[in-house]
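Input/output pair, single chain:
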Amino acid sequence: MAEDDIYTKDGTVDYKGNPANKRKTGTWRACPFIIGNEFCERLAYYGMSTNLILYFKHKLNEHSSVATTNNQNWSGTCYITPLIGAFLADSYLGRFWTIFWFSIIYIGGMSLLALSASVQGTKPRCYADGHCNPTKTESAVYFLALYLIALGTGGIKPCVSSYGADQFDDTDEVEKKQKSSFFSWFYFSINVGALIAGSVLVWVQDNVSWGWGFGIPAIAMATAVACFFLGTPLYRNHKPGGSPLTRMCQVLVASLRKYEVAVPTDKSLLYETADAKSAIKGSRKIEHTQDFSFFDKAAVETQSDHKKGSVNPWRLCTVTQVEELKAIIRLLPIWATGIMIAAVYSQMGSLFVLQGERMDTHVGKSNFKIPPASLSIFDTLSVIFWVPVYDQIIVPVARKFTGHRSGITQLQRMGIGLIISILAMVAAAILELVRLREVRRHNYYDLKEMPMSIFWQVPQYFLIGCAEVFTFIGQLEFFYEQAPDAMRSFCSALQLTTGALGNYLSSLLVTIVTSVSTKNGKVGWIPDNLNYGHLHYFFWLLTVLSAANLVVYLLIAKWYTYKTPVGTLH
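Output:
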């Protein structure tokens, strides 16, 4: 290896602040610690969230619609708070320290949650199974713990996947190819954690106690932090590049100030730093693109820009800074189309669980009953099945036909996932239609569990898992790759907000549907006893909205222009 090739060329440094040595840091020697951290953190998160709707309903004594709304609002918040963590990571703290400080908040929230379910005075008073009467204080402590967790996860979600990808040098073709596999195996670890949470921990919550059911996730989170810090000497770190929001505002202001200035035909005349490095700390230069040319005005040099010697960034911006804003604008339409599949995904933690609760939960002819929330393990098993199939079979085969290093483009991958998500909602709607026909035919209305196996839900969970492998992993890679170097945490957080908005959209649809369908004394689509309802109508509504979203996505994907970075950083 030549002397020049010993160090990375993407601007990363080691934990001492020195240029990162390729032979001693990063790649798959560092990633096991990051993937191990993610496995434990997701085990903790799903361990307390998978069964959350039943805690709302049975321990906090909430109606089905209220429990669904509270569950989805909290889940949505967990995908909004990453904007806070991402801003701090990109601007000031860097990804490593952001993960550290928010992990402390996370552990505090998990510990308080365990106490709220086990200590008298914070634990809801229950007089009989399923009949509880929590005080306002008990409910307040529980919700405080939940939203501390939501804040803590906000510093971890946008940083961990990006931090793992940072371990691969973007300028090295071999490492860049490995990075594509990292995202698949990173998501694989998430689902192994979710598998254990959805089976073992849900069983503990239903059959042992909620105190232990929340206590074990708290221990898992502490283990996640320990695992992460063990790898400190091996990590490559990107230096924070300052506030991305400030830079984008500077481009907007400079463009408006030069509203009447003409953009030169020769784009090489636009302002850019003379040396190889970008003016933005820790960022490579970005090649100029033709679209959104209005913002190019911010990079047009005029005589007044150099009056005081130094350049005023609110009057003159570099091409790279302009292209940062353009990159975000191009990502927004793709981002928006991810909201609908997130709404579909959110059904696994809400209406799929309530649907399963009304079905026969016995495993075969045994006395063992599977908790309805544990059916999510089939989503997880689907992901665990499809990740290696995609990485080891689909990608190599597709690569032979397309010549693309990833087999298919990220946009194509996400589109396939959207199609599969539509099939998942069709499966859920058909199952509910058949289930209700059996209820009416045999007068099962007041049975707590009708004699129809809960395992008929497996196809809808399995299809959502398959959709995840295509769309969600595709989104992880796409938003990282297309993000400007100094805005990768921000763009990862942007991708995560689709999960929040998907939850909020689902919650809004449930609220609207409940309001409209319960008029004139009707039971509505989603009553407490689903045997009297029309849940399949709601699933058909999601199917139609998902199909319309797919059409919009295809039009946007055809228009999209990929980002092209220029040069290297030593």
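Residues 308 and 315 are 12 Å apart (CA to CA). Strands lie at 126-128, 131-132, 285-286, 359-360, 450-453, 565-566.
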